[in-house]
Specification:
heterodimer, A: 476 residues, 10 strands, B: alpha+beta, 4 domains, three-stranded antiparallel sheet, 23 strands, 11% strand
Chain lengths: 476, 908
């Protein structure tokens, strides 16, 4: 029997092990959190202070771009490959068409200001470039790339016609302020789509500059910037909307960060098979500022009517604005049809310009909330297609109030023949409601939909009746 | 056989419905069969009067018995419905009070509504049947006592007029005399199908018709506002535009439906279903009965989205009621007992080999004769139809709670001791009535009342600041005899009774006692007007002196009432709705397992005690009111639950004071004893020359013995520590109670395993002998050892018994360890195991005194063990040649044993 000096150490270890291992093994621990969304939120890059890097006085925006490129050599080339510059996608095959189509702001119609062709100078004030005045704009010339609109943080940079900085902007001060894009940068164009605050989207407006959490939980409660979700690589910014894009590449999903099965209740988790997160988590659109839901071009041009930017303008016609609107709900699989210049329409029915694809039998489709913008807009009664009027600038409708002339000038720009006969047809445009996510405490409740007067029209969605009684689409 | 054609029609309807269901299953893909919501399947029908003539022809009031009875068996329905009977079926049985005449609303006196249904032979008529219909008919579905005599044999109209019979008389409020009631003029009120089965019945108009005594028109009035009938002054006229040419209602006016929550809410409580409309409620508004008595509100709306002036509302993003939120309707749990969709055979009658009996009542038969006895629970105060107690779906009928409560230690124990409500109704976010004092009358002849869950004065504009309240936890007994804790509001009331056997003083007599004309009697003002302003304010309306009590009693006596005196009672009202989900339910163990246990939270009964009369729980409720009613220094009255009296022992809250004191004293005493003895030893050794005794190295403790010893040491220390946390959790706030409980159990398992292995070792090796005192010479040896500790040790004498591997323990140690290992440790293991076993096989611990005995006993043994350990550690310092030698040998195994002189001689 050896008198081992260290026996007490071994003994202690064995004794404690005999105690602690069972305790560790048999105590139940709280389950790890099902959701750790912060793992997927990028760490924001710290911006370099450019105050002493930008010293020469700048006369034009292009000179600033020149200075940027001295260090960021590839930046302008990268931008020139993106939709922010080209306003047009690469050709994509779309269901129901024979050949690939290439769409974007550059060549398609919407049911707001209708289209940019022949109206470039007005529309391209939001182009990430300088000098897009007509069809001759050279998209290969990257010297016209506008770095500042996305990167300046001074707040004093303003773009005018054709995207050129307006008179009096201190370009040096602006250039010295550059940093990562903020909500202010993105918002300067995207919050004012359609020509003013909140007009177009219904889920993007200037209330997001300084939002409270009930406006947008990500921005209001956690101070998100747009680029925290719309992450970019080589200036290619992620995110898609069927209002301009026809493909679903490079899309952003809630589930990029959140677990779709994170609800405590299995019944609610089961909903994620058929219901988009947005449907419950964005109960209302336009929570602070009313958005345009109807635009009637046919009444435009009447000099006798009283003007009110939210009801009637002589240049534009009459409008309906709505605040806290309840979205419309449709099946949507991420892509949509697209009305293209020259597509024939039936003037007696409402023509959807970008009908979301998907139905109850489409397993990839989910029920989505949409702001639907309805309009009466001009079409050619002989050829039965929508017309592109020239509105902005010389000879345009907004100065002459002559529709005929506006269509002739527009036709010259688009190359689409105009018969000389026009009228106005109903169209609709679908804007997926995906921003302004409400805090979870404000999400829809069961009774919002599963109720006699609930939000969802089950029959129209293809259900035999309320699935709480009839079962979900997989049961039917 | 008259009903046969209509029965066929119903069968056809059922067939259509069945086909629709079938086709939806089979043909869904190609041709879904949409059934738009709110579109009734119900066919059009003619409205018939009591003679069976179309009302368009007779212009008489509609008869539901005739109209609905054309297809459904209305007679069957009305005689199988406690909503019509309201106690008539059990008339003549007393319930909570001596003067009750039924367990239902018709005959069961309630101090909240006060008026007393007079019975035959009452000298003073209070509520006659006719006035009951007028006053209480707003919460009665018609039929029953409003149509039939109390013995159930005669239609009311056929009774002979008699002003001495409460069935045919009415109290004239002006003359205070009884007069006959002419049932022929008023007509009677049939079971009102419309009230519960139409989308928008007009309960207000119905109530007005009842109050006006136009009983026969009540059903017709219910249709006001539907477009079927219009009202001109006191008369109703049928709107011909609502009818087809064949005399039947136009289909758009047929809005028959399954009873919705709103239908039920008309009589039962506040139902608010429109998510877009703000829920508002006046504090303690007595028009919504269950909301008034319990604070329950049936709404899917989130509380923070409601319009209530509720303190700290912003954070309350839970709904008022999770079942309302999840679209579970009243009738889903309170279903018609023969509804083939919901019917479930009783566990007791179902043969064991059958899990489901598919032979259902045919849908057509059901629609012809739907039993209107609805599945019901067993809530306190709702005592009607006792034969139907506990027929409804309870939480566990739908919820497999064990799957969602896997985090909960002692799941079975919790489920057995607690109802789901205890944790899932943690708080009421509205007001409820607290007390009603009918010993005094306010100027408007109502009682002085107190509202629970509000701050400041209660006004009727919904502006009162509501704080809500925590339900009090009482034990209740269900019909099967099981008991569990559940949530209640306690409503106290005080009132005057007179006569022997007693009955409550009529309101009209009380008014006469308090008022002369419209004003308070002068002598009452003189006595009650404490601020001498010549008027009586509400706060002055309190009988708080013998003089005041005597004055009112005298005035009542002057009215001819014998022996008027004040009685007080407490009614428990069950709170079973306004359930919330796990996110908002109580999950923190220490809500109950701590000093301020939820289960022992007092509930205020009243701010003042009228007449100093302590109220008593009424005995018709199934609650076990084992707690204590006490008055605080401000005179406010409280109920304090005493779960220990109900056989419950709440770990972390309950302790027996003397056990803890005994334990503390035992531990302190041991420490003091050891310190004194140790101090004397040090003192003695300093005065004594240091001797270097001869030592002999002995391998005293084998490897296993040491491992066993130290494992046991650590286990017992850790058990003591965790046990102490469980015993007094509020002293160790940083520890998770739940985790500590788990650790304690695991440690106990280790202790047991270690003990058994050691027992095996000692038995197998024969070492067990060392622990067993040898009878021969034991006493003398024990005395010798004791003398050594008292005397010898201070003189530096040798240990009287040499310690050797074969004989490690001296006689005193033998006795002590024998006691420890054979008494204390096993006792602790057994009591601990029984406490743990209370969840698995509760009968055994219950047979051995239950947790209220085992808990304190376990604590007592724990204290004794602690005292022993202190003693034991001290004594080890006496065992060797140096104080540390004993411990060292238990660690290293080798002991330096002093060789005794005899032994050394031998060596020499």
């Amino acid at each position: 029997m050896q008198n081992n000096k260290n026996i007490w150490v071994y003994g202690l270890i064995v004794t404690l092990a005999l105690l602690l291992i069972p305790i560790f093994v048999f105590t139940s621990r709280a389950a790890p959190p099902a959701d750790s969304p912060w793992d997927n939120v990028p760490n924001r890059a710290t911006s370099t202070d450019h105050t002493y890097l930008m010293e020469e006085p700048f006369e034009t925006g292009q000179e600033v771009t020149q200075a940027c490129l001295e260090c960021h050599e590839d930046a302008a080339h990268e931008v020139s490959q993106t939709a922010h510059w080209n306003w047009e996608s690469d050709p994509v095959m779309v269901e129901g068409r024979d050949e690939p189509i290439s769409t974007g702001k550059k060549n398609t119609l919407n049911n707001f200001c209708i289209g940019i062709q022949s109206n470039w100078t007005g529309c391209t004030s939001c182009h990430a470039g300088y000098g897009w005045e007509d069809e001759s704009f050279d998209f290969e010339n990257t010297a016209n790339v506008d770095c500042l609109v996305c990167h300046e943080t001074s707040g004093i940079y303003v773009k005018g016609n054709a995207g050129v900085p307006v008179e009096g902007v201190d370009l040096l001060a602006v250039a010295q302020s550059v940093g990562s894009p903020t909500r202010q940068n993105c918002g300067s164009c995207h919050f004012r789509g359609g020509g003013g605050n909140a007009v177009k989207h219904g889920d993007l407006d200037e209330s997001l500059y300084y939002p409270t959490e009930d406006v947008d939980v990500h921005m209001g409660r956690y101070d998100f910037q747009c680029i925290d979700c719309h992450q970019a690589e080589n200036h290619e910014i992620s995110g898609r909307s069927i209002t301009v894009s026809v493909d679903n590449a490079n899309q952003i999903y809630c589930t990029d960060c959140h677990n779709s099965q994170l609800h405590e209740d299995e019944r609610i988790n089961a909903h994620t098979e058929a219901v988009a997160c947005q449907t419950c988590h964005i109960p209302e659109g336009a929570v602070r500022t009313a958005t345009k839901t109807h635009w009637d071009w046919s009444t435009a041009g009447d000099p006798t009517r009283e003007e009110d930017p939210h009801e009637y303008l002589q240049i534009k016609g009459s409008f309906v604005y709505q605040r806290n609107f309840i979205p419309e709900y449709y099946w949507y699989n991420g892509v949509a049809d697209r009305y293209l210049l020259g597509d024939v329409l039936d003037p007696n029915i409402v023509t959807p310009l970008n009908m979301p694809f998907g139905d109850i039998d489409d397993a990839t489709a989910k029920i989505w909330p949409f702001k639907v913008h309805y309009a009466k807009q001009p079409y050619d009664t002989v050829y039965n297609y929508l017309l592109q009027p020239k509105t902005v600038g010389e000879g345009g409708f907004w100065t002459e109030f002559d529709w005929n002339q506006a269509f002739i000038l527009g036709s010259l720009a688009t190359g689409l023949p105009y018969s000389g006969e026009y009228d106005f047809a109903e169209t609709s445009m679908f804007w997926p409601t995906t921003h302004m996510v409400a805090p979870k405490e404000e999400a829809l409740q069961c009774t919002s939909c599963h109720n006699d007067n609930g939000r969802l029209d089950w029959i129209a969605l293809g259900y035999p009746g309320d699935p709480i009684n009839w079962g979900g689409r997989l049961d039917n | 056989m008259k009903q046969l054609p209509s029965k066929k029609l119903l069968l056809a309807l059922a067939l259509i419905q069945g086909l629709a269901t079938l086709s939806s299953v089979v043909l869904a893909a190609e041709a879904p069969t949409p059934v738009a919501q709110g579109t009734p399947l119900h066919p059009t029908f003619a409205l018939l009067d009591s003679e069976g003539v179309n009302v368009l022809e007779s212009e008489a009031p509609v008869s539901t018995m005739r109209t609905c009875g054309a297809c459904h068996d209305a007679e069957f329905i009305s005689t199988h419905s406690f909503h019509t009977s309201l106690g008539l079926d059990d008339f003549g049985t007393t319930a909570g009070h001596l003067w009750d005449s039924s367990p239902g609303y018709f005959g069961n006196w309630n101090p909240l509504t006060y008026r007393y249904l007079s019975t035959v032979g009452d000298e003073r008529l209070d509520l006659s049947t006719a006035e009951w219909v007028m006053q209480f008919g707003d919460r009665h579905a018609g039929g029953g006592p409003a149509a039939t005599s109390r013995d159930g044999t005669t239609v009311l109209g056929a009774l002979s007029a008699d002003d001495g019979n409460p069935e045919t008389a009415i109290l004239n409020a002006e003359t205070a005399a009884a007069q006959t009631w002419d049932w022929d003029t008023s007509g009677t009120t049939e079971m009102n199908c419309f009230l519960c089965h139409l989308v928008a019945p007009n309960n207000e108009a119905r109530t007005q018709a009842l109050q006006a005594g136009q009983f026969a028109w009540a059903s017709t009035a219910t249709l006001e506002g539907t477009g079927i009938v219009t009202r001109e002054g006191e008369e109703w006229a049928w709107a011909r535009s609502a009818f087809q040419e064949n005399g039947e209602l136009d289909s758009e006016y047929v809005t028959v439906q399954d009873p919705s929550n709103a239908n039920c809410g008309q009589c039962h409580g506040l139902v608010h279903e429109d998510p877009n409309e703000l829920l508002v409620q006046e504090a303690c508004d007595d028009t919504n009965w269950e909301s008034y008595t319990t604070g329950q509100i049936h709404s899917p709306q989130r509380i923070n989205n409601s319009g209530l002036n509720l303190s700290e509302k912003e954070g309350l993003s839970r709904s008022w009621d999770i079942h309302s939120e999840r679209l579970v309707e009243c009738v889903d749990c309170h279903f018609s007992l023969n509804n083939p969709i919901f019917y479930q055979e009783d566990e007791d009658s179902r043969p064991e080999h059958l899990t489901f009996d598919p032979r259902r009542l045919d849908l057509g038969d059901y629609l012809y004769q739907p039993i209107h006895q609805f599945a019901r629970g067993q809530s306190a105060q709702n005592t009607v139809a006792p034969e139907l107690f506990d027929t409804m779906r309870r939480c566990e009928s739908c919820h497999a709670a064990e799957t969602t409560h896997d985090w909960l230690p002692y799941q079975e124990r919790h489920f057995a001791a607690l109802s789901c409500e205890t944790c899932h109704i943690p708080q009421m976010y509205s007001s409820a009535i607290q007390s009603k004092d009918w010993t005094v009358l306010k100027q408007d002849t109502s009682a002085r009342d107190e509202c629970r869950g509000v701050t400041g004065p209660v006004d009727t504009s919904a502006n009162t600041l509501v704080n809500g309240f925590q339900p009090v936890i009482l034990q209740s007994e269900s019909v099967d005899g099981t008991r569990s804790l559940s949530t209640y509001n306690l409503v106290s009331s005080w009132y005057w009774v007179y006569d022997d056997p007693p009955k409550p003083v009529r309101l009209i007599d009380l008014e006469a006692a308090w008022f002369d004309g419209d004003a308070y009697a002068e002598d009452i003002v003189a006595l009650f007007d404490t601020n001498d302003d010549g008027r009586l304010q509400e706060q002055e309306l309190l009988i708080d002196t013998d003089d005041k009590q005597a004055l009112i009693a005298t005035r009542l006596t002057e009215l001819g009432l014998e022996n008027p005196h004040i009685v007080g009672e407490v009614q428990p009202y069950s709170i079973n709705h306004n359930v919330t989900n796990g996110e908002w339910a109580i999950k923190d163990c220490q809500v109950c397992h701590s000093e301020d246990s939820l289960l022992t939270q007092d509930m205020q009964l009243a701010a003042q005690v009228p007449g100093g009369v302590m109220p008593e729980f009424i005995d018709s409720a199934n609650t076990i009111a084992s707690g204590e009613i006490y008055q605080d220094e401000n005179g406010a009255l409280y109920y304090s639950p005493k779960p220990q009296a109900d056989g419950l022992y709440i770990l972390g809250h309950d302790s027996v004071t003397w056990v803890d004191w005994f334990g503390v004293l035992a531990v302190l005493g041991t420490m003091v004893g050891a310190s004194v003895h140790g101090g004397l030893r040090i003192f003695a050794s300093m005065r004594r020359p240091k001797l270097q005794p001869e030592l002999k190295r002995v391998y005293m403790y084998g490897m296993y013995e040491r491992l066993w010893h130290w494992l046991q040491t650590f286990t017992i220390l850790a058990l003591t520590f965790t046990g102490f946390i469980i015993h007094k959790p509020e002293m160790f706030g940083i520890f998770s109670f739940r985790y500590v409980v788990q650790v304690h159990n695991i440690l106990a398992a280790i202790l047991i395993a270690n003990a058994f292995l050691a027992l095996f070792y000692h038995l197998a090796s024969g070492e067990i002998k060392q622990y067993i005192p040898q009878p021969r010479g034991f006493f003398g040896q024990a005395v010798e050892q004791t003398l050594y500790y008292i005397r010898g040790i201070f003189r530096g004498e040798d240990h009287p018994f040499e310690k050797s591997r074969e004989k490690k323990l001296n006689p005193l140690q033998q006795v002590t360890y024998f006691g420890l290992l054979n008494v204390l440790l096993p006792l602790q293991i057994i009591t601990g195991a029984l406490m743990w076993g209370a969840q698995r096989w509760p009968e055994i611990p219950n047979a051995l005194g239950g947790l209220p005995f085992l808990g304190p006993f376990h604590t007592l043994v724990a204290w004794s063990l602690v005292a022993f350990i202190i003693m034991h550690v001290y004594l080890t310092t006496t065992a060797g040649h140096t104080p540390q030698a004993g411990i060292k040998s238990m660690i290293m195994g080798w002991d330096d044993v002093e060789t005794h002189s005899s032994a050394s001689e031998e060596q020499n």
